[in-house]
Amino acid sequence: MPTSSSIFCWSVAAAAGTVLFAFGTQPAAAAPASDAQGFLDSTARCAAPSTAVAYGRTDSSRIAVCKSPDGKYQYRGVRVRDGAKLITAATATGDGEFTAANDVATYTVTADALTVTIGDDVIREETMVEFHGPAATPAAPASPGVGPAPTTTPTKPLGPPLPAEVGGSGS
Fold it and tell me: Low complexity composition bias: which ranges (predicted)?
């Protein structure tokens, strides 16, 4: 006949197993919806008449690079954790790479990663988990962009995050 201490131990072990099972089998979050213009309901989306030349996502960011009919590029990025947005001029640097800068940092987008640098220091490198656009193309002349990059504090507030930009894993 089992003792009360052995029953207690089995109960604790069963409860622990249930907790591990519950956390270990949570379904992975579904990928955000997208189409040829970028991510739906997101800042990382190109509005017509511009077209998306590249868009992708990392575990903590969504990015779209748009090209206007006059050939100028625009970077549209959002940090999923808090919906922080950056919309600024971009440049096609060739070989499937795009760069954008604000007053502080430079953002480089490739098929493999989003890299954020300040000067020569890499602040963050995020691996692309989804990418649509050129992987590596022959070098092309750099685009002139659309003029000086705006500051990170726009004169008109950007508004709240769009539905697809709220929440995240807290990264």
Answer: 134-156
CA-CA distances (angstroms) from residue 85 to 6, 13, 76, 133? Answer: 56, 46, 7, 21
Residue pLDDT, tens place only, 70-119: 999 999 999 999 999 999 999 999 889 999 999 999 999 999 999 999 99
Q: What is the DSSP letter of 48?
A: T
CA–CA distance, 68 with 51 (Å, rounded to integer):
7
How many helices (H) and strands (E) in the chain?
1, 11
What's the confidence (pLDDT) of residue 142? 44
Q: CA-CA distance, 80 to 84, in Å (whole number)?
A: 7
Residue 165 lies in a domain: no
**Cβ-based neighbours of 2, under 8 Å, separated by 6 or more:** 10
Residue 81 falls within a domain, yes or no? yes
Question: How many domains are contained in the chain?
Answer: 1
The answer to whether residues 34 and 80 touch, using CB atoms and an 8 Å cutoff, is no
User: What stretch of H or E contains 107?
Assistant: strand 106-109
User: Is 69 within a domain?
Assistant: yes
**Radius of gyration for the alpha carbons in the chain, expressed in angstroms and rounded:** 22
Range of the domain at 82: 34-146
